[in-house]
Design goal:
Layout lengths: L10 E6 L5 H11 L6 E2 L6 E6 L1 H10 L5 E10 L3 H8 L13 E9 L6 H16 L2 E2 L8 E8 L2 E7 L21 H10 L8 E3 L6 H10 L20 H14 L8 E5 L2 H14 L6 E4 L13 E4 L7 H21 L4 E6 L2 H6 L5 E8 L2 E9 L2
Length: 382
């Protein structure tokens, strides 16, 4: 058996990424090495493994824009029977991650293992954690509960503590949403995948509740996405308040007073535009984005070329796709007429609609959004 705990200085961590976004999370972590030492592994399905200390753990949780959550490895051991599971689990340092009486939750997956009953595994681990650290049971996803991710594969059991708490896409600013809101992490991935220059102009003509322009403004001003939220690691016994304050102070010093480029979000739905403006104000970037209530045909981009990054409706059903053909065709026509020299990135789920734009689109990444397979497509408007 091997295990790593929060009080041993070096932490074995894993930044969880949605399928297809692992290379983008790896690039984020490479950039964060300029702020704090991180020993990175190559990206793998599901995320990126790395090693760091407590300050590094705090830094990545605060700054990662695309990852879903950050895990810390608690233990790895062989367990083909419940008595083995309990014996090894009793040796883990639960008290490093759980306060006395704190609720805990276990998310268990099991593949090709003799311990295949996931609920039974969770119950045994809860009993051990309760005995060792005074933990109590709670449903996964409950506020204040410390969540542990348990993976059994070929009788090898990996136990990890969730260091993030609420998923990292929950920045705290989006209280008002339009239809089919885009996750903040995916919006950030679209901007990164499009290769957006953070000093260049950005336009989202189908902005909905404003997630893409707001994420762009946060990126442009170097505002950490986690600046206005809490994290699970703050409740750990080994939490270093001084180190956390130092990480926050360093992050605040880097924040720019204003976005260097022009950022515009527009939508034909007045309610969506109002919601977007309110969300931007909560995010602290209300003065960095111009909002307009306008149809695609009324787009007026700034004269200097930049990026159009947008998330148009997908048309899940065949009938819906037929109605959306005109929207995609109109989008392409407007891009060619008014955005010459611009880069255009859009998230789509069907090649037929992509083709309607008349743009020469190339795939940048493929992932899932709302249970649908989608891909980011990029074109340069001649």
């Amino acid at each position: 058996m091997s295990h790593v705990t929060a009080d041993q200085g070096r932490l074995s961590c894993f930044a969880v990424a949605a399928p297809g976004l692992e290379p983008l999370v790896a690039e984020e972590l490479r950039e964060l090495r300029q702020q704090h030492p991180l020993e990175l592994e190559p990206p793998e399905p599901g995320g990126v493994a790395f090693r760091t200390d407590a300050s590094g753990l705090y830094t990545v949780n605060l700054h990662l824009r695309i990852a879903s959550r950050v895990l810390v490895r608690v233990g790895v051991f062989h367990a083909s029977a419940f008595h083995e599971l309990e014996r090894h689990a009793a040796r883990l340092s639960w008290k490093a991650f759980v306060r006395d009486g704190q609720p805990v939750a276990f998310r268990v997956t099991s593949r090709k293992s003799r311990l295949y009953h996931q609920t039974a595994v969770a119950e045994r681990l809860l009993a051990v954690a309760g005995s060792e650290a005074g933990a109590t049971g709670e449903e996964a996803g409950t506020a204040e509960a410390q969540e542990f991710i348990v993976r059994l594969f070929r009788d090898r059991c990996t136990v990890s503590a969730d260091a993030s708490g609420e998923l990292l896409h929950r920045r705290g600013y989006r209280l008002e949403t339009a239809k089919a809101p885009l996750r903040e992490t995916l919006a950030a991935a679209m901007l990164a995948g499009a290769g957006w220059d953070r000093a260049a102009s950005l336009l989202d003509p189908l902005c909905g509740s404003g997630t893409i322009p707001i994420e762009a403004a946060l990126m442009a001003r170097l505002i950490p996405p986690g600046l206005n939220r809490g994290f699970a690691f703050q409740r750990w016994a080994g939490f270093d308040t001084r180190a956390w304050k130092a990480v926050l102070a360093a992050a605040r010093e880097r924040i720019l007073p204003a976005a260097p480029g022009y950022i515009l979000g527009s939508d034909r739905d007045r309610g969506a535009v109002d919601a977007a403006a309110a969300n931007a104000s909560r995010a602290g970037v209300g003065n960095d984005i111009e909002w307009r209530c306008a149809a695609i045909s009324a787009i007026e981009p700034p004269p200097s070329p930049g990026w159009v990054v947008t998330n148009p409706p997908y048309g899940v059903r065949v009938g819906e796709r037929a109605r959306l053909r005109n929207l995609y065709a109109q989008f392409g026509n407007v891009m060619r007429a008014r955005c010459a020299g611009w880069a255009v990135a859009l998230l789509t789920s069907h090649p037929e609609l992509e083709h309607q734009t008349g743009l020469t689109l190339a795939p940048r990444f493929s992932t899932e959004n709302g249970g649908l397979r989608v891909r980011l497509m990029l074109a340069r408007v001649p």
